[in-house]
Design a protein that fits this description.
The protein is mostly helical and 73 residues long. It has one domain (6-64). It has four helices and no strands. It has helices at 6-19, 23-28, 30-43, 52-64. α1 (6-19) crosses α3. The longest helix has 14 residues, at 6-19. The N and C termini lie far apart (31 Å).
Length: 73
């Protein structure tokens, strides 16, 4: 399990906004979550990679702390 740096959290947050799918829906759809995690991993530092579960866990952590923007659909 990789440690999350502030730049990675910012990147995750930005990609989440661009993706425009609420976190609950994103995590329930395994294919969408895989595509999201793959896109995120392409944007982060070389040599680091986060699996789908790590990305989902971080999204929920940010949401619970009020640091994830609300997306309603």
């Amino acid at each position: 399990m990789e440690k999350w740096e502030s730049a990675e959290i910012e990147t995750l947050n930005r990609l989440y906004k661009e993706n425009n799918i609420p976190s609950d829906q994103l995590v329930k759809d395994k294919d969408a979550l895989k595509r999201f995690a793959d896109a995120f991993n392409q944007k982060v530092s070389l040599g680091k990679s986060f699996n789908d579960k790590e990305v989902a866990d971080q999204l929920f952590k940010l949401r619970k702390s009020g640091k994830l923007p609300r997306i309603r659909k």
